[in-house]
Amino acid sequence: MVNVYASIIPEANAVFDVEKIRTDFPILDISVGDKPLVYLDNAASSQMPRQVMDQLIHYQTTQHANINRAVHYLSEVATMEYEKARRKVQQFVNAREDREIIFTSGTTDSINLVMHGYGRKFIKAGDEIILTTLEHHSNIVPWQMLAEEKGAIIRVVPINDAGELDIETYEKLFNERTKFVGLIHVSNALGTINPIKSLISFARQHDVPVLIDGAQAAPHMAIDVQDLDCDFYVFSAHKLCGPTGIGMLYGKSSLLETMQPFKGGGDMIASVTFEKTTYAAIPHKFEAGTPPIAGAIGFGAAIDYLNSIGIEHIAAYEHELLNYATHCMMEIKGAKIIGTAAHKTAVLSFTLDGIHPHDIGTILNEDGIAVRTGHHCAQPVMEHFKVPATSRASFAFYNTKSEVEALIAGIRNVQKVFL
Amino acid sequence: MMNSKSLYQEVILDHNRKPRNYGTLDNPSHHATGHNPLCGDRLDIALHMQDDQINHIAFHGESCAICKASASMMTAAVKGKTRADTEILIQEFRDMATGKLDPAQPNHLGRLTVFSGIRDLPTRVKCAILPWHTLHAALNALTSVSTETDDDPMQAASVND
Ligand SMILES: Cc1ncc(COP(=O)(O)O)c(C=O)c1O
Questions:
Q1: Which residues, including other chains, have CB under 8 Å from residue A69's CB and lie 6 or more apart?
Q2: Which residue owns the Cα nearest ligand 1 atom 16?
Q3: What is the ipTM of this complex?
Protein backbone atom coordinates (compact mmCIF):
# COMPACT_ATOMS: atom_id res chain seq x y z
CA MET A 1 0.00 0.00 0.00
CA VAL A 2 1.39 3.37 -0.98
CA ASN A 3 1.20 5.54 2.06
CA VAL A 4 0.47 9.08 0.97
CA TYR A 5 0.29 10.33 4.51
CA ALA A 6 3.66 9.05 5.63
CA SER A 7 5.21 12.42 4.94
CA ILE A 8 2.50 14.39 6.66
CA ILE A 9 2.42 12.84 10.09
CA PRO A 10 6.11 13.11 10.97
CA GLU A 11 5.88 16.78 10.02
CA ALA A 12 3.08 17.25 12.50
CA ASN A 13 5.33 15.50 15.00
CA ALA A 14 7.85 18.31 14.70
CA VAL A 15 5.58 20.52 16.80
CA PHE A 16 3.65 17.66 18.31
CA ASP A 17 5.60 14.89 20.01
CA VAL A 18 2.97 12.20 20.47
CA GLU A 19 5.38 9.74 22.11
CA LYS A 20 6.20 12.30 24.78
CA ILE A 21 2.51 13.08 25.25
CA ARG A 22 1.74 9.37 25.70
CA THR A 23 4.06 9.20 28.71
CA ASP A 24 1.57 11.52 30.48
CA PHE A 25 -1.12 8.81 30.24
CA PRO A 26 -0.23 5.80 32.44
CA ILE A 27 -3.30 3.83 31.32
CA LEU A 28 -2.06 3.69 27.73
CA ASP A 29 0.60 1.22 28.90
CA ILE A 30 -1.80 -1.48 30.09
CA SER A 31 -2.38 -4.75 28.26
CA VAL A 32 -5.68 -6.40 27.43
CA GLY A 33 -5.01 -10.10 27.79
CA ASP A 34 -1.63 -10.35 26.11
CA LYS A 35 -2.20 -7.46 23.69
CA PRO A 36 -1.22 -3.83 24.25
CA LEU A 37 -4.25 -1.59 24.70
CA VAL A 38 -5.26 0.42 21.61
CA TYR A 39 -7.78 2.86 23.01
CA LEU A 40 -10.05 4.22 20.30
CA ASP A 41 -13.17 5.00 22.33
CA ASN A 42 -12.32 8.58 23.17
CA ALA A 43 -15.69 9.95 22.11
CA ALA A 44 -17.25 7.94 24.94
CA SER A 45 -14.66 9.01 27.50
CA SER A 46 -11.05 10.10 27.14
CA GLN A 47 -8.17 9.16 29.43
CA MET A 48 -6.68 11.23 32.23
CA PRO A 49 -3.08 12.46 32.20
CA ARG A 50 -0.83 12.24 35.25
CA GLN A 51 -0.94 16.05 35.59
CA VAL A 52 -4.68 15.94 36.33
CA MET A 53 -4.30 13.03 38.76
CA ASP A 54 -1.51 14.91 40.54
CA GLN A 55 -3.74 17.95 40.93
CA LEU A 56 -6.51 15.78 42.39
CA ILE A 57 -4.09 14.21 44.86
CA HIS A 58 -2.69 17.63 45.76
CA TYR A 59 -6.22 18.88 46.42
CA GLN A 60 -7.24 15.89 48.53
CA THR A 61 -3.92 15.93 50.37
CA THR A 62 -3.71 19.62 51.25
CA GLN A 63 -6.82 21.62 50.30
CA HIS A 64 -10.05 19.72 50.86
CA ALA A 65 -13.01 20.99 52.86
CA ASN A 66 -16.55 22.00 52.03
CA ILE A 67 -16.84 25.29 50.19
CA ASN A 68 -18.74 28.54 50.77
CA ARG A 69 -19.59 27.58 54.33
CA ALA A 70 -16.99 28.04 56.99
CA VAL A 71 -14.43 30.68 57.87
CA HIS A 72 -11.65 28.20 58.54
CA TYR A 73 -8.49 27.95 56.47
CA LEU A 74 -9.26 24.81 54.44
CA SER A 75 -12.74 25.93 53.53
CA GLU A 76 -11.31 29.17 52.20
CA VAL A 77 -8.62 27.39 50.20
CA ALA A 78 -11.10 24.90 48.75
CA THR A 79 -13.54 27.69 47.85
CA MET A 80 -10.75 29.61 46.14
CA GLU A 81 -9.62 26.57 44.16
CA TYR A 82 -13.18 25.77 43.14
CA GLU A 83 -13.74 29.31 41.90
CA LYS A 84 -10.36 29.27 40.18
CA ALA A 85 -11.54 26.22 38.24
CA ARG A 86 -14.65 28.12 37.23
CA ARG A 87 -12.49 30.90 35.79
CA LYS A 88 -10.43 28.35 33.85
CA VAL A 89 -13.61 27.05 32.25
CA GLN A 90 -14.71 30.63 31.60
CA GLN A 91 -11.48 31.39 29.77
CA PHE A 92 -11.56 28.07 27.93
CA VAL A 93 -14.86 29.03 26.26
CA ASN A 94 -14.19 32.79 26.37
CA ALA A 95 -17.29 33.64 28.38
CA ARG A 96 -17.67 37.29 29.34
CA GLU A 97 -18.06 36.61 33.08
CA ASP A 98 -17.27 33.73 35.41
CA ARG A 99 -20.80 33.79 36.86
CA GLU A 100 -21.99 32.60 33.44
CA ILE A 101 -20.35 29.22 34.11
CA ILE A 102 -22.41 26.71 36.12
CA PHE A 103 -20.80 23.49 37.28
CA THR A 104 -23.07 20.49 36.65
CA SER A 105 -22.54 16.76 36.73
CA GLY A 106 -22.10 16.66 32.95
CA THR A 107 -23.65 17.39 29.58
CA THR A 108 -26.86 15.50 30.35
CA ASP A 109 -27.29 17.35 33.64
CA SER A 110 -26.62 20.71 31.94
CA ILE A 111 -29.29 20.10 29.29
CA ASN A 112 -31.76 19.02 31.94
CA LEU A 113 -30.97 22.19 33.90
CA VAL A 114 -31.84 24.32 30.86
CA MET A 115 -34.97 22.28 30.19
CA HIS A 116 -36.21 22.77 33.76
CA GLY A 117 -34.84 26.25 34.35
CA TYR A 118 -35.69 27.82 31.01
CA GLY A 119 -38.03 25.40 29.23
CA ARG A 120 -40.54 24.79 32.01
CA LYS A 121 -40.74 28.50 32.74
CA PHE A 122 -40.99 29.89 29.23
CA ILE A 123 -42.19 27.18 26.80
CA LYS A 124 -45.96 26.92 26.40
CA ALA A 125 -48.57 24.81 24.59
CA GLY A 126 -48.19 25.02 20.82
CA ASP A 127 -44.63 26.36 21.00
CA GLU A 128 -42.06 24.67 18.76
CA ILE A 129 -38.60 23.39 19.63
CA ILE A 130 -36.15 22.71 16.81
CA LEU A 131 -33.71 19.80 17.21
CA THR A 132 -31.65 17.88 14.65
CA THR A 133 -31.43 14.25 13.58
CA LEU A 134 -27.82 14.27 14.79
CA GLU A 135 -28.66 14.92 18.44
CA HIS A 136 -27.46 12.60 21.18
CA HIS A 137 -30.39 11.18 23.17
CA SER A 138 -29.47 13.57 25.98
CA ASN A 139 -30.52 16.51 23.79
CA ILE A 140 -33.72 14.78 22.67
CA VAL A 141 -35.30 13.11 25.68
CA PRO A 142 -35.43 16.14 28.04
CA TRP A 143 -37.15 18.18 25.32
CA GLN A 144 -39.62 15.38 24.64
CA MET A 145 -40.46 15.31 28.35
CA LEU A 146 -41.01 19.07 28.22
CA ALA A 147 -43.08 18.84 25.03
CA GLU A 148 -45.27 16.21 26.60
CA GLU A 149 -45.75 18.22 29.77
CA LYS A 150 -46.52 21.49 27.99
CA GLY A 151 -48.09 20.38 24.75
CA ALA A 152 -45.17 21.82 22.80
CA ILE A 153 -44.02 20.42 19.44
CA ILE A 154 -40.61 19.15 18.40
CA ARG A 155 -39.46 19.84 14.85
CA VAL A 156 -36.48 17.91 13.51
CA VAL A 157 -33.82 19.03 11.03
CA PRO A 158 -33.00 16.15 8.66
CA ILE A 159 -29.55 15.11 7.42
CA ASN A 160 -28.17 14.10 4.05
CA ASP A 161 -26.36 10.84 3.29
CA ALA A 162 -23.00 12.32 4.22
CA GLY A 163 -24.39 13.01 7.70
CA GLU A 164 -24.63 16.78 7.24
CA LEU A 165 -27.55 18.94 8.34
CA ASP A 166 -30.06 20.09 5.76
CA ILE A 167 -29.64 23.83 6.33
CA GLU A 168 -32.41 24.83 3.96
CA THR A 169 -34.96 22.82 5.93
CA TYR A 170 -33.56 24.17 9.19
CA GLU A 171 -34.28 27.70 8.05
CA LYS A 172 -37.74 26.78 6.79
CA LEU A 173 -38.70 25.29 10.17
CA PHE A 174 -38.63 28.73 11.82
CA ASN A 175 -41.94 30.49 12.39
CA GLU A 176 -43.53 32.68 15.06
CA ARG A 177 -44.14 29.61 17.26
CA THR A 178 -40.45 28.62 17.33
CA LYS A 179 -39.28 29.16 20.90
CA PHE A 180 -36.10 27.14 21.33
CA VAL A 181 -33.31 25.50 19.31
CA GLY A 182 -31.05 22.64 20.47
CA LEU A 183 -28.07 21.88 18.24
CA ILE A 184 -25.28 19.40 18.53
CA HIS A 185 -21.94 21.04 17.70
CA VAL A 186 -20.18 17.82 16.66
CA SER A 187 -22.00 14.52 16.11
CA ASN A 188 -20.80 11.80 18.47
CA ALA A 189 -21.97 9.06 16.10
CA LEU A 190 -20.47 10.44 12.87
CA GLY A 191 -18.02 13.22 13.73
CA THR A 192 -19.86 15.81 11.59
CA ILE A 193 -18.93 19.37 12.59
CA ASN A 194 -22.03 21.51 12.17
CA PRO A 195 -21.81 25.12 10.95
CA ILE A 196 -23.27 26.30 14.23
CA LYS A 197 -22.17 29.91 13.93
CA SER A 198 -24.43 30.55 10.95
CA LEU A 199 -27.20 28.39 12.42
CA ILE A 200 -27.09 30.43 15.63
CA SER A 201 -27.08 33.67 13.72
CA PHE A 202 -30.20 32.59 11.81
CA ALA A 203 -31.97 31.76 15.08
CA ARG A 204 -30.86 35.10 16.46
CA GLN A 205 -32.66 36.91 13.62
CA HIS A 206 -35.83 35.20 14.87
CA ASP A 207 -35.02 35.99 18.47
CA VAL A 208 -34.95 32.30 19.45
CA PRO A 209 -32.49 31.08 22.12
CA VAL A 210 -30.05 28.35 21.11
CA LEU A 211 -28.43 25.62 23.21
CA ILE A 212 -25.29 24.01 21.79
CA ASP A 213 -24.33 20.49 22.89
CA GLY A 214 -20.56 20.79 22.73
CA ALA A 215 -19.72 17.41 24.33
CA GLN A 216 -17.81 16.28 21.24
CA ALA A 217 -16.52 19.71 20.21
CA ALA A 218 -14.87 21.16 23.31
CA PRO A 219 -12.16 18.45 23.45
CA HIS A 220 -11.15 19.01 19.83
CA MET A 221 -11.43 22.67 18.84
CA ALA A 222 -11.29 26.16 20.29
CA ILE A 223 -14.67 27.35 21.60
CA ASP A 224 -15.59 31.02 21.80
CA VAL A 225 -19.14 31.46 23.11
CA GLN A 226 -19.08 35.21 22.55
CA ASP A 227 -18.07 34.84 18.93
CA LEU A 228 -20.64 32.06 18.44
CA ASP A 229 -23.25 34.19 20.21
CA CYS A 230 -25.04 31.07 21.53
CA ASP A 231 -27.28 31.35 24.57
CA PHE A 232 -26.22 28.08 26.18
CA TYR A 233 -23.19 25.85 25.63
CA VAL A 234 -22.67 22.54 27.47
CA PHE A 235 -20.05 19.82 27.78
CA SER A 236 -18.57 17.18 30.13
CA ALA A 237 -15.07 17.08 31.61
CA HIS A 238 -14.60 13.33 31.13
CA LYS A 239 -14.41 13.62 27.36
CA LEU A 240 -11.61 16.15 27.73
CA CYS A 241 -9.17 14.27 29.91
CA GLY A 242 -10.90 15.32 33.13
CA PRO A 243 -12.82 13.36 35.76
CA THR A 244 -16.35 11.93 35.44
CA GLY A 245 -19.19 13.48 37.40
CA ILE A 246 -18.45 17.08 36.41
CA GLY A 247 -19.41 19.23 33.47
CA MET A 248 -20.40 22.75 32.62
CA LEU A 249 -23.22 24.94 31.46
CA TYR A 250 -22.45 28.30 29.93
CA GLY A 251 -25.47 30.59 29.81
CA LYS A 252 -25.75 34.27 28.99
CA SER A 253 -26.12 36.00 32.34
CA SER A 254 -29.27 37.84 31.20
CA LEU A 255 -30.94 34.47 30.53
CA LEU A 256 -29.60 32.64 33.58
CA GLU A 257 -30.98 35.42 35.77
CA THR A 258 -34.51 35.02 34.44
CA MET A 259 -34.49 31.22 34.81
CA GLN A 260 -35.95 29.25 37.71
CA PRO A 261 -33.63 27.02 39.77
CA PHE A 262 -33.41 23.36 38.81
CA LYS A 263 -32.65 21.84 42.19
CA GLY A 264 -33.42 23.28 45.58
CA GLY A 265 -31.25 22.99 48.67
CA GLY A 266 -28.27 24.44 50.43
CA ASP A 267 -25.85 26.87 48.79
CA MET A 268 -28.44 28.09 46.27
CA ILE A 269 -30.32 30.45 48.56
CA ALA A 270 -29.96 34.01 49.83
CA SER A 271 -32.31 33.40 52.76
CA VAL A 272 -34.81 30.79 53.86
CA THR A 273 -37.87 31.10 56.03
CA PHE A 274 -40.92 28.89 55.89
CA GLU A 275 -42.80 31.87 54.45
CA LYS A 276 -40.39 32.68 51.63
CA THR A 277 -37.03 31.69 50.26
CA THR A 278 -34.98 33.99 48.09
CA TYR A 279 -32.44 32.49 45.78
CA ALA A 280 -28.76 33.23 45.54
CA ALA A 281 -27.36 35.09 42.55
CA ILE A 282 -25.97 33.14 39.60
CA PRO A 283 -24.03 30.90 39.34
CA HIS A 284 -24.87 29.67 42.88
CA LYS A 285 -28.62 29.66 42.22
CA PHE A 286 -27.98 26.62 40.04
CA GLU A 287 -25.49 24.81 42.24
CA ALA A 288 -27.58 23.36 45.07
CA GLY A 289 -25.83 21.20 47.63
CA THR A 290 -22.16 20.37 47.95
CA PRO A 291 -20.79 20.26 44.41
CA PRO A 292 -18.13 17.84 43.15
CA ILE A 293 -15.32 20.12 44.33
CA ALA A 294 -12.51 17.75 43.43
CA GLY A 295 -14.22 17.17 40.08
CA ALA A 296 -14.22 20.88 39.32
CA ILE A 297 -10.55 21.16 40.26
CA GLY A 298 -9.74 18.16 38.03
CA PHE A 299 -11.76 19.80 35.26
CA GLY A 300 -9.62 22.93 35.62
CA ALA A 301 -6.44 20.87 35.60
CA ALA A 302 -7.57 19.09 32.41
CA ILE A 303 -8.10 22.46 30.74
CA ASP A 304 -4.61 23.56 31.85
CA TYR A 305 -3.23 20.35 30.36
CA LEU A 306 -4.97 20.79 26.99
CA ASN A 307 -3.87 24.42 26.90
CA SER A 308 -0.27 23.38 27.54
CA ILE A 309 -0.40 21.35 24.33
CA GLY A 310 -2.51 23.87 22.47
CA ILE A 311 -5.98 23.05 21.22
CA GLU A 312 -5.04 24.05 17.67
CA HIS A 313 -2.14 21.58 17.69
CA ILE A 314 -4.52 18.92 18.98
CA ALA A 315 -7.01 19.71 16.20
CA ALA A 316 -4.34 19.63 13.49
CA TYR A 317 -2.83 16.36 14.66
CA GLU A 318 -6.20 14.63 15.08
CA HIS A 319 -7.14 15.79 11.60
CA GLU A 320 -4.07 14.02 10.19
CA LEU A 321 -5.02 10.87 12.09
CA LEU A 322 -8.55 11.04 10.69
CA ASN A 323 -7.27 11.48 7.12
CA TYR A 324 -4.91 8.57 7.49
CA ALA A 325 -7.55 6.29 9.05
CA THR A 326 -10.14 7.27 6.43
CA HIS A 327 -7.67 6.59 3.64
CA CYS A 328 -6.79 3.14 5.06
CA MET A 329 -10.42 2.24 5.72
CA MET A 330 -11.38 3.07 2.14
CA GLU A 331 -8.95 0.42 0.95
CA ILE A 332 -10.74 -2.34 2.89
CA LYS A 333 -13.17 -4.20 0.67
CA GLY A 334 -16.56 -4.59 2.31
CA ALA A 335 -15.99 -1.72 4.74
CA LYS A 336 -18.29 1.26 4.59
CA ILE A 337 -17.69 4.53 6.38
CA ILE A 338 -20.89 5.96 7.87
CA GLY A 339 -20.60 9.74 8.04
CA THR A 340 -18.57 11.37 5.31
CA ALA A 341 -19.19 15.04 6.03
CA ALA A 342 -16.78 17.58 4.57
CA HIS A 343 -15.97 18.80 8.08
CA LYS A 344 -15.37 16.12 10.69
CA THR A 345 -13.59 15.48 13.94
CA ALA A 346 -11.53 12.28 14.25
CA VAL A 347 -14.47 9.89 14.45
CA LEU A 348 -14.72 6.93 12.10
CA SER A 349 -18.03 5.09 12.20
CA PHE A 350 -18.15 2.07 9.93
CA THR A 351 -19.89 -1.15 9.00
CA LEU A 352 -18.50 -4.34 7.47
CA ASP A 353 -20.58 -6.26 4.93
CA GLY A 354 -22.23 -9.30 6.51
CA ILE A 355 -20.72 -8.81 9.98
CA HIS A 356 -22.68 -7.51 12.94
CA PRO A 357 -21.04 -4.54 14.74
CA HIS A 358 -21.11 -6.37 18.07
CA ASP A 359 -19.07 -9.21 16.61
CA ILE A 360 -16.62 -6.65 15.21
CA GLY A 361 -16.28 -5.01 18.62
CA THR A 362 -15.74 -8.28 20.46
CA ILE A 363 -13.12 -9.59 18.02
CA LEU A 364 -11.27 -6.24 18.00
CA ASN A 365 -11.33 -6.43 21.80
CA GLU A 366 -9.59 -9.80 21.59
CA ASP A 367 -6.81 -7.84 19.84
CA GLY A 368 -6.75 -5.23 22.60
CA ILE A 369 -8.52 -2.66 20.43
CA ALA A 370 -11.24 -0.65 22.16
CA VAL A 371 -13.94 0.69 19.85
CA ARG A 372 -17.56 1.44 20.55
CA THR A 373 -20.27 -0.60 18.86
CA GLY A 374 -23.96 0.14 19.06
CA HIS A 375 -26.29 3.01 18.30
CA HIS A 376 -24.12 5.56 20.15
CA CYS A 377 -27.19 7.03 21.89
CA ALA A 378 -28.15 8.41 18.50
CA GLN A 379 -30.88 6.12 17.21
CA PRO A 380 -32.30 8.71 14.77
CA VAL A 381 -28.89 8.76 13.04
CA MET A 382 -28.85 4.95 12.79
CA GLU A 383 -32.37 5.06 11.40
CA HIS A 384 -31.33 7.50 8.68
CA PHE A 385 -28.55 5.18 7.54
CA LYS A 386 -30.83 2.11 7.94
CA VAL A 387 -28.39 0.30 10.21
CA PRO A 388 -29.14 -0.98 13.75
CA ALA A 389 -25.66 -0.08 14.89
CA THR A 390 -22.16 0.83 13.73
CA SER A 391 -18.65 0.33 15.01
CA ARG A 392 -16.95 3.59 15.92
CA ALA A 393 -13.27 4.35 16.30
CA SER A 394 -12.80 7.78 17.87
CA PHE A 395 -9.30 9.21 18.13
CA ALA A 396 -7.60 11.50 20.61
CA PHE A 397 -4.35 13.45 20.31
CA TYR A 398 -2.48 10.66 22.15
CA ASN A 399 -3.36 8.07 19.51
CA THR A 400 -0.76 7.24 16.90
CA LYS A 401 -0.48 6.31 13.28
CA SER A 402 0.58 2.82 14.31
CA GLU A 403 -2.62 2.49 16.36
CA VAL A 404 -4.56 3.35 13.22
CA GLU A 405 -2.63 0.55 11.53
CA ALA A 406 -3.46 -1.83 14.40
CA LEU A 407 -7.14 -1.00 13.90
CA ILE A 408 -6.92 -1.67 10.18
CA ALA A 409 -5.11 -4.97 10.77
CA GLY A 410 -7.74 -5.83 13.40
CA ILE A 411 -10.56 -5.17 10.94
CA ARG A 412 -8.89 -7.36 8.32
CA ASN A 413 -8.63 -10.08 10.97
CA VAL A 414 -12.36 -9.75 11.73
CA GLN A 415 -13.08 -10.26 8.04
CA LYS A 416 -10.81 -13.29 8.00
CA VAL A 417 -12.62 -14.86 10.97
CA PHE A 418 -15.91 -14.57 9.12
CA LEU A 419 -14.61 -15.62 5.71
CA MET B 1 -9.96 -10.36 32.28
CA MET B 2 -10.08 -11.77 28.80
CA ASN B 3 -9.80 -15.31 27.70
CA SER B 4 -6.73 -15.85 25.63
CA LYS B 5 -8.92 -18.18 23.60
CA SER B 6 -11.28 -16.47 21.23
CA LEU B 7 -15.01 -16.70 21.81
CA TYR B 8 -15.27 -17.12 18.06
CA GLN B 9 -14.27 -20.78 17.93
CA GLU B 10 -14.79 -22.88 14.85
CA VAL B 11 -18.00 -24.48 16.19
CA ILE B 12 -19.59 -21.09 16.67
CA LEU B 13 -18.37 -19.76 13.33
CA ASP B 14 -19.65 -22.86 11.60
CA HIS B 15 -23.14 -22.56 13.10
CA ASN B 16 -23.16 -18.88 12.15
CA ARG B 17 -22.23 -19.68 8.56
CA LYS B 18 -24.57 -22.65 8.21
CA PRO B 19 -27.26 -22.28 10.85
CA ARG B 20 -29.18 -25.52 11.57
CA ASN B 21 -32.99 -25.48 11.61
CA TYR B 22 -33.01 -22.05 9.99
CA GLY B 23 -36.39 -21.09 8.54
CA THR B 24 -40.07 -21.21 9.44
CA LEU B 25 -42.61 -23.93 10.36
CA ASP B 26 -46.12 -24.36 9.04
CA ASN B 27 -48.71 -24.44 11.82
CA PRO B 28 -46.37 -24.39 14.81
CA SER B 29 -47.90 -25.35 18.16
CA HIS B 30 -45.72 -22.77 19.93
CA HIS B 31 -43.90 -19.67 18.75
CA ALA B 32 -42.41 -16.44 20.04
CA THR B 33 -40.38 -13.44 18.92
CA GLY B 34 -37.41 -12.15 20.89
CA HIS B 35 -35.92 -8.66 20.69
CA ASN B 36 -32.74 -7.12 21.93
CA PRO B 37 -33.48 -3.45 21.28
CA LEU B 38 -29.97 -2.43 22.33
CA CYS B 39 -28.36 -4.06 19.31
CA GLY B 40 -31.36 -4.51 17.05
CA ASP B 41 -31.29 -8.31 17.25
CA ARG B 42 -34.60 -10.00 16.50
CA LEU B 43 -35.37 -13.69 16.48
CA ASP B 44 -38.47 -15.78 15.67
CA ILE B 45 -38.70 -19.26 17.09
CA ALA B 46 -41.43 -21.76 16.16
CA LEU B 47 -41.84 -25.33 17.29
CA HIS B 48 -44.06 -28.35 17.15
CA MET B 49 -44.79 -30.25 20.37
CA GLN B 50 -46.24 -33.70 20.28
CA ASP B 51 -46.69 -35.91 23.33
CA ASP B 52 -44.70 -33.41 25.37
CA GLN B 53 -41.77 -33.64 22.97
CA ILE B 54 -40.30 -31.06 20.60
CA ASN B 55 -40.66 -32.70 17.20
CA HIS B 56 -39.72 -29.79 14.99
CA ILE B 57 -38.15 -26.44 15.74
CA ALA B 58 -37.05 -23.60 13.49
CA PHE B 59 -35.73 -20.06 13.91
CA HIS B 60 -35.01 -17.08 11.74
CA GLY B 61 -34.17 -13.42 12.22
CA GLU B 62 -31.51 -10.74 12.15
CA SER B 63 -28.74 -11.00 14.68
CA CYS B 64 -25.05 -11.05 15.45
CA ALA B 65 -23.00 -14.23 15.04
CA ILE B 66 -23.12 -15.12 18.72
CA CYS B 67 -26.91 -14.97 18.81
CA LYS B 68 -27.31 -16.86 15.55
CA ALA B 69 -24.88 -19.63 16.54
CA SER B 70 -26.52 -19.89 19.95
CA ALA B 71 -29.93 -20.26 18.30
CA SER B 72 -28.64 -22.83 15.83
CA MET B 73 -26.99 -24.96 18.50
CA MET B 74 -29.97 -24.58 20.79
CA THR B 75 -32.43 -25.87 18.19
CA ALA B 76 -30.15 -28.83 17.48
CA ALA B 77 -29.88 -29.55 21.22
CA VAL B 78 -33.58 -29.41 22.13
CA LYS B 79 -35.01 -31.24 19.13
CA GLY B 80 -36.54 -34.49 20.41
CA LYS B 81 -36.36 -33.37 24.04
CA THR B 82 -39.26 -33.15 26.44
CA ARG B 83 -40.47 -29.87 27.79
CA ALA B 84 -38.98 -30.61 31.21
CA ASP B 85 -35.57 -31.51 29.78
CA THR B 86 -35.66 -28.40 27.61
CA GLU B 87 -36.43 -26.18 30.59
CA ILE B 88 -33.45 -27.69 32.40
CA LEU B 89 -31.19 -26.85 29.46
CA ILE B 90 -32.57 -23.30 29.29
CA GLN B 91 -31.85 -22.81 32.97
CA GLU B 92 -28.36 -24.27 32.71
CA PHE B 93 -27.48 -22.18 29.66
CA ARG B 94 -28.64 -18.99 31.35
CA ASP B 95 -26.67 -19.88 34.46
CA MET B 96 -23.53 -20.64 32.47
CA ALA B 97 -23.79 -17.40 30.49
CA THR B 98 -24.22 -15.31 33.61
CA GLY B 99 -21.42 -17.12 35.45
CA LYS B 100 -23.67 -18.89 37.96
CA LEU B 101 -22.86 -22.34 36.61
CA ASP B 102 -19.29 -23.50 36.24
CA PRO B 103 -19.15 -25.64 33.09
CA ALA B 104 -16.72 -27.92 34.96
CA GLN B 105 -19.62 -28.97 37.24
CA PRO B 106 -21.95 -31.75 36.04
CA ASN B 107 -24.48 -30.42 33.54
CA HIS B 108 -26.43 -31.32 30.42
CA LEU B 109 -24.98 -28.66 28.14
CA GLY B 110 -22.55 -30.78 26.13
CA ARG B 111 -21.09 -28.79 23.21
CA LEU B 112 -23.04 -25.73 24.31
CA THR B 113 -20.21 -25.04 26.76
CA VAL B 114 -18.34 -23.37 23.87
CA PHE B 115 -20.35 -20.34 24.97
CA SER B 116 -18.95 -20.35 28.49
CA GLY B 117 -16.49 -17.52 27.66
CA ILE B 118 -19.44 -15.16 27.24
CA ARG B 119 -19.63 -14.68 31.01
CA ASP B 120 -16.50 -12.51 30.73
CA LEU B 121 -18.22 -10.22 28.23
CA PRO B 122 -21.24 -8.81 30.08
CA THR B 123 -22.34 -6.71 27.11
CA ARG B 124 -22.61 -9.84 24.96
CA VAL B 125 -24.37 -12.13 27.43
CA LYS B 126 -27.75 -11.03 26.10
CA CYS B 127 -26.78 -11.94 22.55
CA ALA B 128 -26.13 -15.56 23.56
CA ILE B 129 -29.16 -15.75 25.82
CA LEU B 130 -31.78 -14.22 23.50
CA PRO B 131 -32.65 -17.51 21.68
CA TRP B 132 -33.07 -19.31 25.03
CA HIS B 133 -35.14 -16.47 26.40
CA THR B 134 -37.34 -16.68 23.29
CA LEU B 135 -37.66 -20.46 23.47
CA HIS B 136 -38.72 -20.19 27.11
CA ALA B 137 -41.36 -17.65 26.06
CA ALA B 138 -42.61 -19.92 23.27
CA LEU B 139 -42.95 -22.88 25.65
CA ASN B 140 -44.86 -20.73 28.10
CA ALA B 141 -47.14 -19.17 25.50
CA LEU B 142 -45.74 -15.65 25.67
CA THR B 143 -45.62 -14.47 22.09
CA SER B 144 -43.10 -11.67 22.42
CA VAL B 145 -40.21 -10.99 24.74
CA SER B 146 -37.59 -8.32 25.02
CA THR B 147 -34.28 -8.28 26.81
CA GLU B 148 -35.10 -4.75 28.00
CA THR B 149 -38.44 -5.02 29.73
CA ASP B 150 -38.81 -4.73 33.48
CA ASP B 151 -39.91 -8.33 33.80
CA ASP B 152 -36.89 -9.63 31.92
CA PRO B 153 -35.84 -12.59 34.06
CA MET B 154 -32.32 -12.31 32.70
CA GLN B 155 -31.35 -8.70 33.17
CA ALA B 156 -27.67 -9.15 32.55
CA ALA B 157 -26.09 -5.96 31.34
CA SER B 158 -26.96 -2.85 29.49
CA VAL B 159 -24.97 -0.86 26.99
CA ASN B 160 -24.48 2.85 27.38
CA ASP B 161 -22.53 5.44 25.58
C1 LIG C 1 -22.80 14.73 21.76
C2 LIG C 1 -23.02 14.23 23.15
N3 LIG C 1 -23.94 14.82 23.92
C4 LIG C 1 -24.15 14.43 25.18
C5 LIG C 1 -23.45 13.39 25.74
C6 LIG C 1 -23.75 12.98 27.15
O7 LIG C 1 -22.67 13.28 27.96
P8 LIG C 1 -22.66 12.80 29.49
O9 LIG C 1 -22.97 11.35 29.45
O10 LIG C 1 -21.29 13.12 29.95
O11 LIG C 1 -23.71 13.59 30.20
C12 LIG C 1 -22.48 12.74 24.98
C13 LIG C 1 -21.69 11.62 25.53
O14 LIG C 1 -21.96 10.48 25.43
C15 LIG C 1 -22.27 13.17 23.65
O16 LIG C 1 -21.37 12.57 22.88
A1: A75, A267
A2: A188
A3: 0.82
